[in-house]
């Protein structure tokens, strides 16, 4: 009964990941981007419908241009990498068709899993010789750690946004004071200038 309860809890916490698919025009590129924190396992399964004479390549890289995985002329396969730093990562698919051939729409199917979803707990249980209950508890522990890390990231982002808002507010306040001082100085100068002008024209004493 306990095993069933833990299994239900695991199912409640795990987000169902649905593979995405799209069609690519010949000689075009499509990129998918996602922000990931440090030390996150990423696994991807891709399936490209074979078309004679047409080719598909993929490349995975971070915001600095470091290549984490790439392969040319793909049909079906997988890629795996772990993030070293918090960064923006992207995977790009490129369709290639020779100039002498008329290309057609190329279908791509992609399934990406990150973090706990990317781990294979069955293999882990066999290696570590864990019982089903222990394996479920290990999964719950990893899920809990992932949720805590997500909340920590959200908290850090909120603090960064608050600091940015406060900094912007202070700058706007000083800019407003500076603008008022400039307008006041310009008004005084304009009054003095007009007064000298009217005196020179002997319109006032």
Overview of this protein structure:
The protein is α+β, with helices and mostly antiparallel strands and 205 residues long. It has a domain at 17-119: Jelly Rolls (Sandwich), CATH 2.60.120.380. Helix content is 43%, strand content 29%. It has three helices and eight strands; from the N terminus they run H-E-E-E-E-E-E-E-E-H-H. The chain has helices spanning 2-13, 121-128, 132-200, and strands spanning 20-24, 29-36, 41-48, 55-62, 67-71, 76-82, 87-96, 106-114. The protein has a four-stranded antiparallel sheet, with no helix packed on it. A hairpin with a 4-residue loop joins strand 4 and strand 5 (67-71). The longest helix is centred in the C-terminal third of the chain and has 69 residues, at 132-200. The chain is elongated, with a radius of gyration of 30 Å. The termini are far apart. The model is unreliable at 1-16 (pLDDT under 50).
Approximately how much helix is present in the residues?
40-55%
Annotated CATH architecture of the domain at 17-119: Sandwich
**Globular, elongated, flat, extended or rod-shaped: what is the shape?**
elongated
The fraction of residues in strands falls at 25-35%
Largest sheet: 4 strands, antiparallel
Judged by helices, strands and strand pairing, the structural class is: alpha+beta
Q: Rounded to an integer, what's the Rg over CA atoms? A: 30 Å
Mean pLDDT level: 81
């Amino acid at each position: 009964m306990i095993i069933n309860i833990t299994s239900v809890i695991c199912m409640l916490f795990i987000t169902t990941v649905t593979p995405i698919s799209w069609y690519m025009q010949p000689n075009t590129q499509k990129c998918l981007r996602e922000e990931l924190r440090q030390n996150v396992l990423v696994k991807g399964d891709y399936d490209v419908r074979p078309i004679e004479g047409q080719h598909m390549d993929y490349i995975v890289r971070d915001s600095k241009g470091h290549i984490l995985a790439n392969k040319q002329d793909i049909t079906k396969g997988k890629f795996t990498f772990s993030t070293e730093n918090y960064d923006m990562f992207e995977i790009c698919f490129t369709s290639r068709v020779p100039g002498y051939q008329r290309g057609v729409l190329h279908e791509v199917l992609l399934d990406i899993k990150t973090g706990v979803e990317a781990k294979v707990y069955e293999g882990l249980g066999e290696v570590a010789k864990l019982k089903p209950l222990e394996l479920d508890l290990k999964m719950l522990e990893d899920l809990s750690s992932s949720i805590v890390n997500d909340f920590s990231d959200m908290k850090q982002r909120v603090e960064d946004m608050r600091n940015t808002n406060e900094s912007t507010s202070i700058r706007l306040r000083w800019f407003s004071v500076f603008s008022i001082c400039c307008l006041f100085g310009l008004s005084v100068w304009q009054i003095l200038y007009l007064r000298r002008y009217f005196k020179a024209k002997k319109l006032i004493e």
